[in-house]
Specification:
five-stranded mixed beta sheet, mainly beta, single chain, about 50% strand, Plug_dom, 22-stranded antiparallel beta barrel, 9 helices, globular
Length: about 900
């Protein structure tokens, strides 16, 4: 029976975890943020926001540009211009202008970035494992059970100050750096009092369909589970007392004190305690709602002491109707056949909430202490009904009607405090420190699936049905908790020479993390067929079949069983000690040279737990030491910037980094991707991938605010990690393996240009265009072995697109009343996962996204914004052997928002 480990197992696993000196952490709320250019922490303005470097620079001449977005774009561009590394910056006004509602959607506008599953960012065509994420410079844990990285759709745009994407490494960033590092920076303490609020509504073309729901689902405005759906305590109590829940377990656990009929009755009483009012029904789709409120101010405590505070709250509720199509193929390239086919209709009812409280204390010009608190919660209640046909039933009237109810709560709470200090008496040396404590959780208290055997008419609609008792209804109760703590400091000392300013910087960073993941699967085993007396009961709805009377009277011949087939539970811990030193030299504001080296001592243990609470060895295949990783290494980085003219500069960067496997990828447990539904298996034999990176970029910044850039990059990857379908498994069941080698290279181009050069003094002065294009390629070598037989032993990396394009046409009226933006985004096809046994790889097809945003400003305090998303009505599609194997229609979305700011 799957439950939490026994006391004995806990003692053993805790003993192993103690080797890492890692303990579970209880987190409160919040996070912090790096300095902004608009708020220097000392008499000398510093450039710190994207890289963590703090390099004194001469005061920058402010470029005044007409138009809301161009002013914001210029500020972000100026920050990018002063970075030591290749980086891209996106400000809050730019995010607002494109109308993107969260960090994930906004980041796909950045050069070389693509969005996967609406949550995860691919940098330069590399999967999410090759990017890292921080919030205000602090590493935070992920509430997603299948990935290390944080789902970026959890961060609403309303709390974001800016987004920084650093594409070349530096010594002060984690060495686990592949494609890039994304830093989400929340709103800063304001310079003056402000108050802002907004309310809005949403409509989607799919709203013409009914919403799928069930009793107790989708009606609570908070989206939270009220406790009724969770696994009953009586089940845990029975396991603890008798060793299991089956009648045989109860009889043997009672040493014969309970006979078999009494044990059967006890087993049925456990089923009575489970939430069964879950028959799927439909209702009219309600329009979506969203709202934000924020307030902040500064207070003069004394002549040289200022206190600031900012609080914000965001809320979104909507029902997202969808249709999906899924196909599994078998055979090879010469003879391909459909093994399984599903047509699915469903609704994902989501509620997202975020709260933020930021405090700051400035003491004179040289000292600043800040705290940042952030709470994010995202609930999803996905209800679907599908018609499934197998190779034996395709073209026949009989099929399966599959019901699925998947409810989950994702939360992230974080707390951070940081300080910035300039020491005048010590040559204006700078000392920075931070501490962050965070906790994430994914709670899925009741995921239910059940199936009916149905007869279809010519319109493919069921005309008769009976519960499929061969595939028992299954309940899944799962919980994941991920706690982390990190702290660090750095000290920078400037040295002035005749024609150069050098800053030597040393620092230390510590990160530790613990994770616990548990899942329990239970099944309703029914001993009744439609031809039996009372068999007509099986044609009823789910809640009627499993009513109290039918269970109490034993009409169904019901037995509650453990439905677990594989080890799914695991606990894990990791810690990383890192130290770094760097030198940053500015030669008379013409040449800037940066060199640094980072040392990391990384340790991790991931322990799979059996249903009995013991450490699994997967049938004796693995020893305990296979679950532990201990590695250390040196990671150098270098960059050179040449300011050719006042408007033109060149950058060169080189570095060595590493990509480590995720926690679940190295534990031999089965897990399911919540987006695609694919089954994955971990592999303790995975090794980390060393990466060698080269970057070159040319940048141009005009005095009028226009800018261009052209860059090239190359990455050599040793033993890249790839998901590959196993020979012995049917369907989409994949495992992670190290390929032998791989590389990725490409070029990037970006521009922002006003149109007044076409006709000076005309209306075209109110327009400008912006865009970017990335072209590239990649290749990996995969060798067959006893478990895998890849069709293509040389192919592109999973998730890599050969091209990505963004184009934006924007308008700002000269009277400041109107603003509009048309945005187009598209990526080239990319491999979702590799084919096997002669079947080609599965490709995700290009998605042509066209969005439009219009804003009207009747007063300086009020705004009305209209946004249309996916105007082309595109669908997400996967193909294999020129056959569509997956498709999902997100519809076209319209939102209307009213805002007021004081």
């Amino acid at each position: 029976m799957k439950t939490k480990p026994s006391f004995t197992a806990n003692k053993l696993t805790l003993a192993i975890l103690s080797v890492l000196s890692v303990t579970s952490l209880a987190a409160t709320q919040a996070i912090a943020q790096d300095e902004t250019l608009n708020e220097p922490t000392s008499k000398t303005q510093t450039s710190t926001q994207a890289t963590g470097e703090s390099f004194p620079i001469e005061p920058i001449e402010v470029i005044s540009v007409t138009g809301r977005l161009r002013t914001s774009a210029s500020a972000a561009t100026e920050e990018r211009r002063e970075q030591i590394a290749v980086a891209d910056i996106m400000g809050s006004e730019q995010i607002s202008r494109t109308g993107d509602s969260d960090a994930a959607a906004a980041l796909r506008r950045v050069t070389g970035l693509t969005l996967k599953d609406g949550k995860f960012i691919y940098v330069r065509g590399l999967g999410e494992r090759y990017s890292s994420t921080s919030l205000n410079g602090a590493t935070v844990p992920s509430p997603d059970p299948t990935r290390n990285v944080v789902p970026l759709d959890m961060f609403p745009a309303s709390i974001i100050e800016s987004l920084s994407v650093q594409k070349s490494a530096s010594a002060d960033k984690p060495a686990a750096f592949g494609g890039g590092h994304v830093d989400i920076r929340t709103k800063a303490i304001p310079a003056n009092f402000f108050f802002k609020t907004s309310v809005g509504g949403r409509f989607n073309t799919n709203d013409s369909n009914d919403t799928y729901t069930y009793n107790g689902g989708g009606d609570d405005w908070t989206g939270r589970d009220d406790g009724t759906r969770g696994m009953p305590a009586s089940i845990d109590n029975t396991i603890n007392q008798y060793g299991g829940i089956s009648p045989i377990d109860i009889v043997s656990g009672s040493n014969g004190a309970i006979n078999y009929p009494a044990a059967q009755k006890m087993n049925r009483e456990l089923a009575l305690d489970m939430y069964r009012d879950m028959a799927v029904n439909t209702k009219s789709t309600d329009p979506g709602f969203r709202g934000d409120i924020a307030i902040g101010d500064r207070f003069d405590i004394s002549d040289d002491m200022v206190f600031g505070a900012l609080a914000a709250y965001s809320y979104k509720e909507q029902a997202e109707n969808y249709t999906k199509y899924e196909v599994e193929l078998d055979g090879d390239s010469e003879q391909t056949q459909i093994e399984n086919q599903k047509d699915i209709i469903g609704t994902d009812s989501i509620v997202q909430m975020s709260a933020m409280l930021n405090l700051g204390l400035e003491i004179g010009y040289n000292h600043k202490i800040e705290t940042f608190s952030t709470y994010l919660r995202d609930t999803s209640d996905d209800v679907s009904v599908g018609i499934e046909e197998t190779i034996d039933t395709l073209g026949e009237p009989n099929a399966l009607q599959v019901y699925g109810i998947d409810y989950e709560e994702r939360t992230l709470t974080s707390n951070q405090i940081k300080g910035h200090h300039f020491i005048e008496a010590f040559n204006d040396a700078e000392f920075n420190w931070m501490f962050s404590d965070a906790k994430s959780e994914r709670n899925a208290p009741n995921e239910l699936s059940y199936t009916y055997n149905v007869i279809l008419d010519e319109a493919n609609s069921p005309v008769s049905r009976n519960l499929n008792t061969q595939d028992a209804p299954k309940y899944v109760y799962s919980n994941l908790q991920d706690d982390s703590q990190n702290y660090g400091w750095d000290f920078a000392y400037p040295i002035q020479f005749d024609a150069a300013l050098m800053k030597v910087k040393v620092g230390y960073q510590y990160y530790e993390r613990t994770r616990e993941s548990y899942a329990t699967r239970l099944g309703f085993d029914v001993d009744l067929s439609p031809t039996d007396p009372n068999g007509d009961i099986l044609s009823e709805e789910f809640d009627k079949i499993f009513s109290d009377d039918n269970i109490n009277n034993n009409t169904l011949g019901l037995e509650l069983k453990d439905a677990s087939t594989d080890t799914e539970d695991y606990i894990a811990a990791e810690k990383n000690d890192a130290g770094f030193i760097s030198v940053d030299v500015d030669f008379d504001d013409v040449w800037r040279f940066y060199a640094g080296v980072r040392y990391e001592d990384f340790r991790r243990v991931t322990l799979p737990i059996t249903p009995e609470g013991d450490i699994s060895d997967e049938g004796g295949r693995y020893d305990l030491q296979d679950y532990a990783i201990a590695e250390d290494g040196w990671f150098p980085s270098m960059s050179l910037t040449w300011k050719q003219t006042d408007t033109t500069q060149w950058r060169l960067g080189a570095s060595k980094t590493i990509v480590r496997p995720d926690l679940r990828e190295v534990s031999p447990v089965r897990f399911q991707d919540p987006v695609t539904g694919f089954d994955f298996f971990g592999n303790p034999e995975l090794t980390s991938s060393d990466m060698y990176n080269l970057d070159l970029r040319w940048e141009y910044y005009s005095d009028e605010g226009d800018n261009y850039s052209l860059g090239a990059f190359y990455k050599d990857v040793d033993a890249p990690i790839e998901p590959i379908q196993r020979i012995s498994e049917a369907g989409r069941q994949l495992k992670f393996y190290n390929a032998e080698s791989g590389y990725v290279y490409g070029i990037e181009a970006e521009f922002l240009q006003t149109l007044d050069f076409i006709s000076e003094g005309s209306m075209l002065e109110d327009f400008f265009v912006a865009g970017n294009l990335t072209l590239g390629d990649s290749e990996i070598d995969i060798a067959p072995n006893g478990e895998i037989d890849p069709t293509n032993t040389k192919r592109r990396m999973t998730g890599h697109s050969e091209w990505v394009a963004n184009v934006q046409l924007s308008y700002d009226s000269s009277n400041s009343y109107h603003s509009a933006t048309l945005v187009y985004n598209v990526f080239g096809e990319r491999i979702a996962y590799g084919g096997r046994g002669g079947l080609d790889d599965v490709y995700e097809k290009p998605f042509h996204s066209l969005d439009f945003t219009y804003s009207f400003f009747p007063t300086t305090s009020m705004a009305i914004k209209l946004k249309a998303k996916n105007l082309l009505g595109e669908t997400t599609e996967y193909d294999q052997q020129d056959i569509q194997v997956y498709a999902k229609d997100p519809g076209t979305e319209y939102t209307l928002q009213f805002s007021y700011e004081y």
